[in-house]
Structure formats: structure tokens, C-alpha cells
């Protein structure tokens, strides 16, 4: 992607008013005042963890694109660097709070080794077995704030912890201001890829969503695993029912869309094969 195409793609994405709004001025100092009020109400040990990693002179994040070379048209994956921002300390703390809940999901895959360990015991699969992968399109930006925060409440059983987690996550989600060139923006939907808590937040949202869907659906995959937005399924109920499963899963949430690939012999899942 050359410089001209890069800038055009960035402006194309940033013009989507469902996700971003352009700002006339930098709100960082106002956000700093809001954070100070929130932090004062927290226990001292949490205050220390957040403030130690929060810059004294915060600045807007930096927007950039990572080209998706494997996607048609070579679209860019939007990244907003959290380094030096007002949310960096809160997001780092929430990453540590959310991680134990994220990795406890039945579908959770940590890495390649973990994936291989979980499938190595599967032997003598039926002849009609279908291997399928599903990819959630633009997961991070398509998590509505209310739904993501509700997923945290559904996941964390202790009310005090859940209340604190949703309050701090909400601050990160709603104070993600950034620059591209000379222009200032605010992300108004989803979470930014580039903030520390984003993978755990997305994992919790997807775990909550998939469990509610799987519990409501009469046919179950023989195996269902997920690495953030990449899903691997072993299906033994036939082609037609798999297509219906995919359709119903797509219909389950208004902003979550899944593309599917399948094979009777081999499948490419994430970066594993």
C-alpha cells in the first residue's frame, strides 16, 4: 500500500460516523480531570497501579493502519496506539483484572500449542465430519459499549468487582481520543485495537455471546474453540445444518457478522496451519 492509498484508506475508515466523530479541540485535559475524580474514589492500591502508569502530561492516541494483505482490496486494520494517553494506566489495570475471566471461557485458545493440545485427543471422527472456521468481521469496533459492559457484568459474579470493572472499562471506551495527521477524533463505538485491555474485553464479549447462542441452539459442535475473533468448529451434523447454524449465529447479534470457511479434510485456522 503506497502513501496515497494509505491516507485514503485511513480517511475512508475515519469518515464512518458509526465508529468515529471528528473533534474541534483536544479534550485530553478535561479527560484528565475526570480520571482524577474517578481514581480518588478507588482503594489506594488500585490508585497506585493506575497512576503509576498514567502519564503526567497525557496526549491523544495515534491512529494508524496495518494492511490486511490477505483480504480483498487490501483494507487496513485500524490501530490506535495507547502509549502516552490518558487511558493507558486504566487500560493496563483492566487488562490484569479481566484476563482471568477471559481465559476461563470454555472456548479459549491461548496460542498454537494450546490449540494443538486441545485437538490432539480427537480420534475416529465420523465420515461426515466437517471442519469449519468462522471469522468475526471487525470485532473490536463492532462491540457496542452497552453490550460489552453487560458481558462483563454477566461474567464477573462479584457485584463489587463487576461494578468497578464496568466503570473503569467505560472510561477507557468513551475517552479514546486520537490524532491522524492534524485532525482530532474520538472513537464512539467499540474498543480500539491498541489499548491494553482490548483483547481481554473482546474475549469476554465473545465468550458471553457464544455461550448464550450455543445454549439456545439445539445442535452442538463436537468441538468449538476460539482465538479472539477466529473460531474453529468440528461439526458432525451434516452440511445443511452447519449452514443453518452459521446463519442463526449471524442473526444472533445485530453488529456481529461471521464469515465461514469449511472442508471435509483440512482447514486454515488463525495462523496455525
Distance between the termini: 26 Å
Global morphology? globular
Physical arrangement of strands within the biggest beta sheet: 1-6-5-2-3
Oligomeric composition of the shown chains: single chain
What sequence of helices (H) and strands (E) makes up the elements? HEHHEEHHEHHEEHEEHE
Distinct helical segment count: 9
The count of strands amounts to 9
Uncertain residue segments: none
In short:
InterPro entries: RT_dom. This protein is α+β, with helices and mostly antiparallel strands and 273 residues long.
Description:
- It is a single chain.
- The chain has helices at 3-14, 28-40, 44-52, 88-102, 112-119, 145-155, 159-174, 198-216, 239-251, and strands at 20-23, 61-67, 76-81, 130-136, 177-180, 183-187, 223-227, 230-235, 258-263.
- With 273 residues, the protein is of the alpha+beta class.
- The protein is globular.
- The model has no long low-confidence stretch (mean pLDDT 94).
- It comes from Podarcis lilfordi.
- This is Reverse transcriptase domain-containing protein.
- Residues 47-273 form the Reverse transcriptase domain.
